[in-house]
Predict the structure.
Amino acid sequence: MKIVRSILLPAAMILLIAGAATTASAQNNDDVVAASYEGTLGAQRIGMTVTVKDKKLVPDSHYFYQKHLTDIPLTGTAGDAVTLKEPGGGAFALRFKGNGSNGNQPLTFDNSVGLVGSWTGTDGKTYPVVLSGGGGTVAPEPPGTRWYRDVTNKSDQAFEAQVQGFYKAVMAGDRNAAAHYVSFPLRVNFSESRHVQIRTASQLAAQWDQIFNRSWMKRAAEAMPHDMAVVRGQAMLGQGLAFFGGNGLEVVNAMP
């Protein structure tokens, strides 16, 4: 199931995103609902992707830790409360979080801004969970549908390995390694009105500190190169930090 995450970006970051997806304001029992989240479980960064039909999670629902990026299957129900279980015995007890825009309507996947609650392990220890994101009613897709089919013909695993290779290199400050994952010319947006084209690996290395500055790196540290949102045919890292096509990194939104 391909999901486009809800994203809230400052104007300078919305340089490649136009238009807005609309979803139903309420879900019927027979709707297929998809939602994707990022946040924290205790001190750990996690991501979560769920698909719900008849208020029950369907296969492929999962969550993952940023440090592993390995899917942990989830089963459970999602009505007024969201109760999820994983094979190892851990359990989520969550509720929708709103921002008041739902008015008198009950909170659902498409009119909430996240999930909050707790996770309890088999040892009985409980940790707070705070997740941002959401989703809405979608058309069901056949099992095995590729997540990044609108981006590339590569398998999801091969494409994400490419993105993760770049991510590891840039976080380590390895300019030469990072350049291997760039589809030149690379567009770097410094503002809504100013951008540059980086055409070679040497040019990227020369402008590295201006592109991947402290602010960019701080935000990138919270990003997760897995189950990424697909926006207009590109996979988006974090909240609009970078966009990837089938041949590698195509766009970076620099931070002030």
